[in-house]
Amino acid sequence: MPKRDNVFDILFENQEMTEKQKKILEAAVEIFSEKGYSATSTNEIAKKAGVAEGTIFRHYKTKKDLLLSIIAPTMAKFIAPFFIRDFNKVLLSEYQSFEDFLRAVIINRMEFAKKNFPMIKILFQEIPFHPELKEQFKEHIINHVIKRLKLIVEEYQKKGEIIDMPPQTVIRLTVSSILGFVIGRYLMFPEAKWDDEAEIERTIQFILHGLSTYNKE
Amino acid sequence: MPKRDNVFDILFENQEMTEKQKKILEAAVEIFSEKGYSATSTNEIAKKAGVAEGTIFRHYKTKKDLLLSIIAPTMAKFIAPFFIRDFNKVLLSEYQSFEDFLRAVIINRMEFAKKNFPMIKILFQEIPFHPELKEQFKEHIINHVIKRLKLIVEEYQKKGEIIDMPPQTVIRLTVSSILGFVIGRYLMFPEAKWDDEAEIERTIQFILHGLSTYNKE
Amino acid sequence: MPKRDNVFDILFENQEMTEKQKKILEAAVEIFSEKGYSATSTNEIAKKAGVAEGTIFRHYKTKKDLLLSIIAPTMAKFIAPFFIRDFNKVLLSEYQSFEDFLRAVIINRMEFAKKNFPMIKILFQEIPFHPELKEQFKEHIINHVIKRLKLIVEEYQKKGEIIDMPPQTVIRLTVSSILGFVIGRYLMFPEAKWDDEAEIERTIQFILHGLSTYNKE
Amino acid sequence: MPKRDNVFDILFENQEMTEKQKKILEAAVEIFSEKGYSATSTNEIAKKAGVAEGTIFRHYKTKKDLLLSIIAPTMAKFIAPFFIRDFNKVLLSEYQSFEDFLRAVIINRMEFAKKNFPMIKILFQEIPFHPELKEQFKEHIINHVIKRLKLIVEEYQKKGEIIDMPPQTVIRLTVSSILGFVIGRYLMFPEAKWDDEAEIERTIQFILHGLSTYNKE
DNA sequence: GATGAATGAGGATTCATTCAT
DNA sequence: TATGAATGAATCCTCATTCAT
């Protein structure tokens, strides 16, 4: 019983879609994320969407097209615009400390990730198998994200809040720690009992201390 | 041009295999890791292995069987026995500090991971799609690994080297940081220039400071 | 050169069928009856039907399904309804004597059998190899046919036309004699010259005398 | 747990066979009779026989060869020699009446049929699918059996014990009645309770009266 | 004689895609 | 726009048969 229509509407905004097309996308997202693109048949999607198989191909030339039409906006909306926003906020000193920034990012993005979980799962599951996607992803990451993140990191390094270390490494360690939580929490052990708030706090503290300038002595 | 016969011999030791069977396994590992299990055809494997397609099915009842015969030993040899070894070493105080332990583990496992990279890639790529594998993996992880790691962590917590924090969280943060490096280094940006030694050292320092008891003030 | 469309239309009435589907059924009946279900390949059927192999599986999930979709209606239309009809006629004394009944049955059923010969051949050839079919057949036979035939036999036994003998035995002997003719005539020696009328008459007389009450003395 | 070694020894006498070869034959007979020739794989036979698949082909050039090596002697020993024996007995007036002859035949052949049931089942199941077998069978039947049976029938017709009717028809009716019993008894309803003796007697009486000259009035 | 690994042709079935309606 | 019948290439797998040991 997909409740995430709203999320869909955001992700696929400015795309006019028939009711059926939405159903197809929903079904595809659900099955792709569950069984993987390759192991999913268009027939299966059609059935789950309550649509004739031909209808899928009216809207998406090929099965791959359908995949891309899910991944592309996920990539675009998930990664790019967010950082632009935060980036400006940082430069404008809206986040007074690295800690503030970190906390804001985690809370904000986590919400998004939770809602769009299946889409993101597809994204990471399929990237290794589709070189074009990989390329696209790297470009996004490197050009839009890392570039900006570097500037942010350097900003906080200048302020003396972050240890002197190649910004890429700072980014890697920070992202690892956050993703490590997300993956453990939602992918690997979703049914375990988690004290989300405490875990997030611990993760933030871990990152902050791990990157603190006090380590220098 | 598979040069990793030695690794194969270790991973599939105590299994008598025809020359052809080895060829099949090698081919399967290579293609599975590249395109994913589902997108790989047995025909393709046969061709790459220089074998008739029927031969595959003489040795492995089904394609899935072939997958499992790759994953199972990878799981067994990669995860379980290693920790048992290290576990004892820790208890016997062979590693004087958490830092020593961390460094030993990283160096040792990294070597193995590098050699068996394709197998491990398959392992992580396929687990999300095969509930039995997931189950098996969790069991391995939880029963054999986390249980022991917890004891190790508690040992170093008692010694005052690690901050007082639920051991699972310590494990999560540590493992995230290490895997973050491995994934970035070997999966996402293998072609970038990496100063491995420095990056490993930074990762270790990050973990140590992130978990240090001096944070407490 | 299938001329039996009419028969098909009867046998598969109330089933909407594509032209192609009919072609598939015709081809299947012909080849199944000739070479047996197991020795028939779907490829062969497709070719004879002038259809792509995939088309077969659009209409019948499996090859077995195709077989059943031939056998089930044959069983239903061949066995069940006929006897119900005759059964009522007997009870309504439309057949004044056992001889009349016998003659009517033979002539009527013989016509049907001749037309649907391949279907019936398949029925009897495949039953021994498919336990579910066997079960289904027995149920049909026992519940619908023998039960009614028993009543008919008992009716004529009451009238003193048939010797006092377990009705099953009467049925067995009668059916054997008739089927013996059909099998010899159409299955074993179809190319021999047969004086059908005379042979049928002799068969009827044989049964009548074999079961006559005059034997009693 | 095949107990019919003796039967095998008779059927395949004057053929030198290794232990393995016997095992193969036994397994083949069992599976062929159960699933049909076409649906039986040599692999299956090999497994049941406890033999390597290659061994089958040491002894029988092809799978068909194996089938024939079962059917041929069954045909030869079941049909031919028996009638020769009985034939002579009839001519030598060893059977004083048609009834005696009938009874002797039924009892004698029934015994054989019961023991060699699977072989005979194979015979009748496979004949429709193998034209050469059909031909071979017809030849056996027509040349060796019917020809002689005709003479026997004519003998009893001369004696006035059998009604004046084409001998083929007499044979057909007689054989039908007997086979009708065998098929019902052993093939169709083997698990029903049968009073064998009574049923056989009824069958004999049915045939005798059906063919009696007293019918002539 | 017996084995069982190896074969490749052929088996049933699935698949993404097309197209007439 | 939507359908669903039709396709035929491709898929996984089975088979009878061969052959080196």
From TrEMBL, chains A, B, C, D:
One of its GO terms (molecular function) is DNA binding. The keyword Repeat does not apply. Keywords: DNA-binding, Membrane, Repressor, Transmembrane, Transmembrane helix. It comes from the Bacteria. Pfam families: TetR_N. Residues 41-60 bind DNA. Residues 18-78 form the HTH tetR-type domain. The keyword Transmembrane helix applies. The chain crosses the membrane at residues 66-84. Gene3D superfamilies: Homeodomain-like, Tetracycline Repressor, domain 2. This is TetR/AcrR family transcriptional regulator. It comes from Heyndrickxia sporothermodurans.
